[in-house]
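Researcher: I've got a protein sequence and the SMILES for flavin-adenine dinucleotide. Could you write out the 3D structure of the bound complex as structure tokens? I'd like something to compare against our soaking experiments later this week.
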Amino acid sequence: MFVDHTFEPSTMSFTQRDADVIVVGGGLAGLIAAAKVAQAEHSVIVLEQARHFGGRAATQVKSGLHLNLGPHALYCQGHAFRLLKELHVPFSGRFPNPGRSVLLQGKNEFAFPFSAWSLLTSGLFSLREKWILARLLQELPRMDVTSLTHVSLQTWIEQRAGRGNLNAFLRTLARLNTYADAAETLSAAAALTQLQVGLSGNVWYVDGGWQTLIDGLRSRASEDGTEFRTGSSVKRVERVGNGIKITLANGEELHSRAAILTVSPGAACQLLNLSEESPLARWSNTVVPVHAACLDVCLDRLSRPEHRFALGLDRSVYYSVHSAAAKLAPEGIAVVHIMKYLREDAEKSYSNTEAELEGVLDQMQPGWRAQVVERRFLPGMTVSHCLPAAAQGGTVGRPGVQVQEQPGVFLAGDWVGSRGTLADASAASAEDAANCVLNSFKNESQSATGSFTHVGN
Ligand SMILES: Cc1cc2nc3c(=O)[nH]c(=O)nc-3n(C[C@H](O)[C@H](O)[C@H](O)COP(=O)(O)OP(=O)(O)OC[C@H]3O[C@@H](n4cnc5c(N)ncnc54)[C@H](O)[C@@H]3O)c2cc1C
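Model: Sure. Here is the predicted complex with flavin-adenine dinucleotide in place.
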């Protein structure tokens, strides 16, 4: 263990510290934050309660099959991709291979309007809708969406597209990019910004699954001296003197100069023992998470191999053959992710949801049941801790990385900071938290130098 005997100018005492920074949570945000701080030559300990690192970006590996926790696609123009590159994390991937991509409406299948030709020949839209969509797709990449922060996606879509099939298609596209089936509450600015990120650079399905990103980040941070601990559940984080005391569930205490918490909003409030009246606790009590149910299957044969991607128009479902692009399984085995975007107000029946997802697979890959090599149903995954709602100011309404009530404690995660959505929000806030920590250290050492100069004079 790293022990730093740091001279504290403000208390004029030596404090025994286990690390400069303790990061709580070993998911994407925690590991990016750790790698950034360690890169600046500060000591870091990452504490993860689970037995392995990765959080929601973990990949289950079994007999050469790599199964992410539901469908995971990395936005090539997003913050996570940029930071992984900046940190020299090695990973490879490919754009989804669309094959015959379809939109599902009842038993009908419509070609996905990827190209000008498929839009022109689509039987889904009226002539007027085709014209509106063509103009929208042209306009969208350069559209300034800031004025739409407090406007709901539904209001924006109805203004632009009316109530027909184009309305349903735009909601479907927004679901794909935000994972949220909540057009009535979702901020149009948040949804359209994420759509812009998707349209400008597409996504990658990552070879070996997202665990590759996690493992790469860990080795990067390890090279710079970061210590990693699994099975370390944190119970309390508090400021003591001018440092931070971290108490683990097993009673062990660790001390640091700063802490970065990458847990859920509710867990952060609990760890910090915040009163119900504190701004973070009040915000956390109103925030709505985004959930999904996932059916992840590996099949040794696809009856309709050309069917690689589908989205529901009249149902909030997703289907994609990820192994058609990324290396996720031995030759001949297909890794397929089917998902339902869950509404927070919907009645939750796991068996109905599983049957609905199986129904999508029946439609896309008839006879799939005889080909199953592996299958896993994840009924209630938290895709994001925060739906960027119009009423709360979209992504701008999320809390910042600094915890006002506890100086020296910083936050990161998909619910923190105004930049990005999903993993990009986790990555961007991890970068911001690491920069804030490093700035606070710089300020501390500048004021320490100042006081020494004063003493010397
Ligand atoms: C089904 C699904 C599909 C997704 N698809 C995409 C996608 O296509 N594109 C995209 O960009 N994003 C996607 N995401 C979102 C993405 O996975 C997350 O945004 C990202 O992985 C979150 O990382 P994080 O580090 O912020 O949080 P987490 O991964 O949740 O990490 C937090 C970690 O903290 C640990 N922890 C919690 N409490 C404590 C404690 N008290 N002590 C110690 N450790 C603790 C947890 O065990 C966990 O490991 C998807 C998510 C899901 C669920």
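Model: Residues 24-30, 47-50, 55-57, 69-73, 233-234, 262-263, 267, 292, 294, 381, 383, 413-414, 422-424, 426 surround flavin-adenine dinucleotide (CB under 6 Å). DSSP finds twelve helices and 21 strands in the chain.
Researcher: Great, I'll pass this along to the crystallography team.
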